[in-house]
Design a protein that fits this description.
By secondary structure, this protein is of the alpha+beta class. The protein has helices spanning about 5-30, 40-50, 125-135, 170-175, 195-205, 240-245, and strands at about 95-100, 100-105, 110, 115, 140-145, 155-165, 165, 180, 255, 270-275.
């Protein structure tokens, strides 16, 4: 009885046969038709005979050329302009009484500090009132305290009056409609702007039509040769105007002779005040 080969044995023999055939084919491929080694075999032999030179592969890090522009730090300090120094709008002038007195909103009457202008009926009264009206009439004004007292004995506020940054008191002197008065020279105490007012008064001739006799201009007319005595009725209590003093029996007073002279306004600049 023929015993059949086991399946595993047959598979081994088949693999061996296949390997033998593959080897023959490979050898034929490596050798030429003339029996010389084929090109693949020659290349393998050449590679084996060639000395091996170690190759050093240097990988350089890419060079990054960074040229930084010089950094200029420019610090610009922008200072905002200070807010305008305009104070809160002041009261509006509702009436001009004369050259040195006004009424403002709120029912207050204001007497301008450090100046004096002609009273009603005196030379220059209308001109002084008109000048003040042109400066402040109907306008909002700034009222700045500065006198020794806040109000006078008539209850009027004593103030510097400013409009649009202009010192109206000083401007009235410069225009020849007022004189510097009610200050340290006549017993009312020094006020902050007295020096400027006195200097302006000395440099400004009186308004036209009210110059001292002889047309000398300026504020220093010579006193008359006749010396007038004060009344025998007692000491003048210092009235607000010559009119009040005369009505009470006082006056006249001569400059350089009677201290009362400096208390009142010499409207005609003749060296005598409160003439009867």
């Amino acid at each position: 009885m023929v015993q059949h080969e086991r399946a595993p044995t047959r598979r081994r023999r088949a693999r061996a046969a296949f390997a033998a055939v593959f080897a023959v084919v490979l050898l034929a491929a490596m050798c030429g038709s003339d029996g010389e080694p084929g090109p693949e075999l020659r290349r393998s032999a050449a590679s084996a005979e060639r000395p091996t030179i170690p190759t050093t592969s240097t990988t350089r890090a890419p060079t990054t050329s960074t040229t930084e522009a010089p950094t200029t730090t420019s610090t610009t300090t922008t200072t905002a302009p200070p807010p305008p120094t305009t104070a809160a709008p002041g009261p509006r002038v509702v009436d001009v009484i004369d050259g040195d007195t006004i009424d403002v909103e709120g029912g207050r009457r204001v007497r301008l500090i450090g100046i004096d202008t002609p009273e009603r009926g005196e030379c220059g009264y209308s001109e002084a009132a008109a000048a003040l009206r042109s400066l402040v009439g109907g306008k909002a004004v700034r009222l700045v305290p500065g006198a020794r007292d806040d109000v006078d004995r008539y209850g009027r506020l004593l103030r510097y009056v400013e409009v649009g940054g202009l010192d109206v008191n000083l401007e009235m002197i410069r225009r020849g409609h007022a004189i510097a008065r009610y200050d340290s020279r006549d017993g009312y105490g020094r006020h902050a702007r007295e020096q400027a007012y006195v200097a302006a008064d000395a440099a400004t001739p009186p308004a036209a039509g009210c110059a001292a006799p002889g047309g000398g201009g300026g504020r220093s007319a010579a006193p008359p040769s006749t010396t007038l005595a004060p009344p025998a009725g007692g000491t003048d209590p210092r009235f607000g105007t010559c009119r009040e003093a005369i009505a009470s029996g006082y006056g006249p007073y001569t400059r350089g002779v009677h201290p009362e002279y400096d208390w009142y306004r010499d409207a005609d600049r003749d060296g005598v005040v409160c003439e009867r």
